Amino acid sequence: MAKLLALTIIVIAIASAVPVVMHTWEAPADVSTHGHLIDEQMSETMIEAGVSFLAAQIILAIFIWKFSSFHTDGKTRTFPGGAKGLVIAALVLVGAEVLALGAFGVKAWATVYFTPPSADALPIQVQAGQFAFYFRYPGPDRKFGALHPELINEANQNFFGLDPEHDPDARDDIVTAEMAIPVNQEIHLLMHAKDVSHSFYVPALRIHQDFVPGLDLSVHFTATKIGKYEIVCSQLCGLGHYSMRAYLSVMSREDFNDWLKKEAALQ
Amino acid sequence: MDATSAAHAAQHHAPPTSFIRKHVFSLDHKVIGKQYYALALVAVLTGMVLSWLMRIHLGWNNAAIPGLQFLSANGAPAGKMTPEYYLELMTMHATIMVFFVLTTAPFAAFGNYFLPIQVGAEDMPFPHFNMMSFWTTFVAFCVLISVFFVGDGPPLSGWTAYAPLSAIGKVAGPGQGTGQVLWATAIGIFCIGQLLGALNFISTVLDMRTKGMTLARLPVTAWAWFITSCMGLTAFAVLMPACVLLILDHVAGTSFFVASGLVINDQLLPHSGGSTLLWQHLFWFFGHPEVYIAIVPGMGIITHVLITNMRRPMLSMKAILYSLWALAFLSYMVYGHHMFVSGMNPFSSLAFSFPTLMITIPSTILVLIWIGSLYGSKLRINSASLFALGFVSMFVSGGVSGFFLAQPSIDIMLHATYFVVGHFHMVMGVAAMFGIFSGTYFWFPKMTGRMMNETLGKVHFWLSFVGTYCIFMPFHYLGWAANVRRFASFTDDFLKPLIPLHQFITVAALFTGAVQLIFIYNLIHSRFKGAPAPDNPWEGTSLEWSMPSPPPWNNFGGKDPVVYHDPYQYGVKTSTGADYVMQNSPEQVATGGD
Amino acid sequence: MPESHRTEKKENLEVMATTVQEPPKTEARRMPARSEAGISGNGGWRNLVPSEGHLLAVGEYSPPPSSSAIWVGIAAITMSFAAFTSALIVRQGSSTDWRHITLPSILYLSTTLLLVSSVTLEIARRRVATFMGGLKSQVASPGRWLYVTLSLGLLFVAGQYMAWLQLRSKGLYLATNPNSSFFYVFTAVHALHVMGGLGGLVRVISKLNRSVLRRSTLDATSYYWHFMGVLWLYLFLLLRMKL
Question: Which of B160, B167, B171, B164 is nearest to B181 (CA)?
């Protein structure tokens, strides 16, 4: 029975590794400028985790195979070096490994969070509310009108609570249900939560940030490939959480300008 | 008779006589332990059925589940689950499993039964508190289950109940009114029960050890329960205030967690100024130690089981104990890894990631010691030791995914995906459960005086081991493919191709769940018809094996045991030819342990 | 407990008393060194035999006393209030709606009463210990100071209620603003724990009157009560500074 268990563990370990090695299921291709740092970090970690996983399971299996019989006259041996070697290995090898992972990962994190957006980043505001994302472009005055939550009215399509009558900055704001951005243009995404916590997750863009009611947060990124991508909400927000999404279209600059003009006309 | 035992004799109590005192409101820690175990059994079956309902819905989204409409006419009209009902079932599944199974069984059930025995005491120092602890937990369970039947159903905010979704009342969604308040109340009551329990456990270890039982001679299970109690004391004492504040936001119009200017259903909410992240900080300060509370007793149990079956001590008990303490200590410093992209200061995210990476070290030491100790041993294979070995394999599998989740940059991709769900199910849902199974097969003879059926036990192990890998390993693949969690349906373009994998998982889950019925059958059948168990069927050394199976109401028969050895005197030469010396045996032997 | 059973127990103890060579001391810290006596753990007899020889019968079921338990309980309560404190600090920083409130003046009086009650409790404790030690002649009505402490505690709780009334008269209710919310929450949770302490004092008085009080029960209840005072002092200063 012990031998069977050992074999089973090895089979399971290898079978588990196969889809990973074959890239059967993986994240969508990266279309961002910063995503390669995350992907590199992911590959590094995959190798280290994979090696640790396989080594531990296989050695466990071998030991179960070899040392699981009950002979009253069998000699028992101790692992060479006893606990000392193992503890030192854990402290030094694993310690160094995780510290390295942590240290190298700082760069990927810092690129996303510790660098400010550049001065010519295009500001776009996204508002998350049960169960849709709405987007707002500042228009030719390059200023966003103030938000007035008490003026929000879904029926009249005043999703953001703008007051164009009294607020000149709000008059040329462009509100859309889809997000479009020019390719290779840095975007400064201003995030506003309307009701409860939500999250902005675009796997292809390697961007993931929660909306926090009461806190106005922002992220910035640049898309490098034209295409249509899904923005999904990944923070449980109510019964419509699974269907809360929007499409992000990355377009050429000319197409984007056309799109923006069309949307402005619809306001 | 000397002063000590005479004093003890005067302290010892009369046996309970009435049925109520013996079986219902018992002060006996052994009965209380069994009551907790029974509660955990009911809870795990409930939680498992809920998981089946969830998995069926995920694999076959439009299927009608016959009969579900009787549980909730609104939630599943004609048996077809609504998205809100899916979330409600999910919330209840997690709440029941984390609190009423994983905290209750390995810690409250086995700990209550065996901790006083293993330290050589007749009972815990506060039997009335102990009894109240169980009944409080029971009341908490009843209040929790009641949400299925009141108002518009259970809350849908997950077991994590993030504010403001959980704080603004029924305007946020079905179940968010009465259901959420009852949920928070149930959890608050649960906290009180666990605090009373932790009080007893800690006092037992510090003050109730018998003569000769120094701290260094405590079995590893006693240490594990002690460490868990220390964590429980601090963690549950923080969750309770959080629940109080959440309830106040609901019923008293306060704004602890709800910010200003929020609009839902076109109405401006009256709250103002609250902090969304405050809930997350309070919750996860409890939440991370809680997962160690779920696993540490299991680590103690399988260590104890492996030692007994290897017939020799681990390579270093000190390394194991220091690692357990390190896990407990570090568990308070890592909680922010649940909040990397939550909007908290990104520098804090880095700060939390380093202790999270560091916690790999004590975990690795434990795994290496477990595996290294097998080298050159003579491991006996039985149900208990199989589940202990399974625990090690599962803990490795569940643990390595931690490498990914500990790094904020990688968490950008994996946060709130099935990768996280796979990680915690492997360590909590499988490894911790295997710890419970191992303990059950090991201690059932002592608790009931009968042996469990070994064949059924092995079948249970094999099918569960392969089955749980089939369920939870694929979760990681789903996560890598960016499959977001807590979705009632997979309607996004990039998720639809993953549905076949979900269906595979569902089939594995239903199968593995059904296999657990073998265990239930074994438990019940053996309880009444199992072969009579000897006092020491596994040839163990700790004090529980020195007493009859099952033990008398006063454990040591009114006498106090005297302890001469540590609990790892295996592989020694004794006068009787046995390869072990019991802790309370005066015999001195040549080879010694720690 | 039937009379005969009690007498029988007493006889056992008296028999024991003559065979004990070294009556163990009542002070926890003056136990014989564990290594000398070969004893680990409590032993269970610490508080049973007072140093002056006059024995008190123990209750029907009294497991060996646990001296660490009260500190464990105090640790848990401390953690809870630490959680509430951090909630206060975070909430204060999360918005600009913090409105300073003036603490009701009665709090100065009730604080004083609570602190004085700790003093009276200490007096009570020493007198009861002396009494339990058999030196009955030295102390008359050892329970008197316990009643004083109990009364001061009740007055404290009443004072807290009056503080609530004072706040309400100023239009400050639980949900009025975050400051008032925290005021009510802190004072209510503390008062609930104080009422638990009052229950403990009642229990001690009742056991003393029936001559079944153990030193450990008295000590534990006293530590808890003093903790209530220290905790209140901390809360009072916190509320003064922050609210």
Answer: B167
Cite the beta strand spans of chain A per DSSP E.
Answer: 122-129, 132-137, 174-176, 179-182, 186-193, 198-202, 207-211, 217-222, 227-232, 245-251
The reply to whether residue C87 touches residue B255, judged by beta carbons under 8 angstroms, is no
Q: Which two tokens stand for residue B318?
A: 């000190």
Residue A120 CB neighbours (<10 A): 8
Main-chain dihedrals φ then ψ at residue A265, nearest 5 degrees: -65, -25
Query: pLDDT digit string (tens) for B125-134?
Result: 999 999 999 9
Residue B367: how many other CB atoms lie within 10 Å: 21
In a domain, B250, yes or no: yes
Q: Does some domain include residue B555?
A: no
pLDDT attached to residue A229: 96
Structure tokens at A207: 């961007």
Q: Which chain B positions have a beta carbon within 8 Å of C217's beta carbon?
A: none
Give the pLDDT score at C141. 73
**pLDDT tens digit string along B540-566?**
999 999 999 899 988 888 888 999 999
Does the CB of B251 have a partner CB in chain C at under 8 Å? Answer: no
Contact across the interface for B371 and A59, Cβ inside 8 Å: yes
Ordered by where they begin, the domains of chain A are 2-68+80-113 (no CATH), 122-265 (2.60.40.420)
The alpha-carbon gap from A137 to the nearest alpha carbon of chain B, in Å, equals 21
Q: Which helix (H) or strand (E) is B267 found in, with range?
A: strand B267-268
ipTM of the complex: 0.95
pLDDT exceeds 90 at position B502 = yes
Same domain, C58 and C106: no
The overall average pLDDT reported for chain B is 93
Q: Quick one: which H or E segment has residue C140? A: none
Q: Residue B390 falls within a domain, yes or no? A: yes
* CA-to-CA separations, B137 to B49, B108, B188, B436, B496, in angstroms, rounded: 21, 10, 10, 19, 42
Four-point Cα dihedral B311, B313, B315, B316, nearest 10: 170
Which segments of chain C does DSSP mark as H helices, in order? Answer: 3-19, 34-37, 69-93, 106-132, 144-169, 178-209, 215-242
Q: Does any CB of chain A come closer than 8 Å to the CB of residue B369?
A: yes
Determine whether the interchain pair B386/A95 forms a contact, defined as Cβ–Cβ distance below 8 Å: no
Residue B152: band (very low, low, confident or very high) from pLDDT cuts 50, 70, 90: confident
The answer to whether B348 contacts chain A (CB < 8 Å) is no
* Residues of chain A with C-beta less than 8 angstroms from the C-beta of B82: 239
Please tell me which of the candidates B208, B236, B273 has its beta carbon nearest to residue C42.
Answer: B208
User: Which one of C9, C21, C87 has the shortest CB-CB distance to B10?
Assistant: C9
Residue C79 and residue C151 in one domain: yes
Give residue B290's pLDDT band: very low, low, confident or very high (50, 70, 90): very high
- Tokens, residue B506: 């569902």
pLDDT, one tens digit per residue, over B429-467 is 899 999 999 999 999 999 999 999 999 999 999 999 999
Question: Nearest chain B Cα to A15, which residue?
Answer: B473
Provide the residue range defining the domain that includes C40.
1-65
Residue B24 lies in a domain: no
Q: Give the model's pLDDT for residue B248.
A: 97
Confidence band of C9 (pLDDT split at 50, 70, 90): very low
Domain match, C200 and C230 both? yes
pLDDT recorded at residue C210 = 82
Based on the fold, state whether residues C49 and C96 are members of the same structural domain. no
Is C41–B10 a contact, with Cβ atoms under 8 angstroms apart? no
**Backbone dihedral angles phi then psi of residue A221, each to the nearest 5 degrees:** -160, 165
User: Do C1 and C109 fall within a single domain?
Assistant: no
For A54-74, write each residue's pLDDT tens digit. 999 999 999 999 988 755 556
Question: Which residue type is seen at B409?
Answer: S
What is the distance in angstroms between the CA of the first residue and the CA of the last residue of chain A? Answer: 72
Are C73 and C54 members of one domain? Answer: no
C41 touches chain B (CB under 8 A): yes
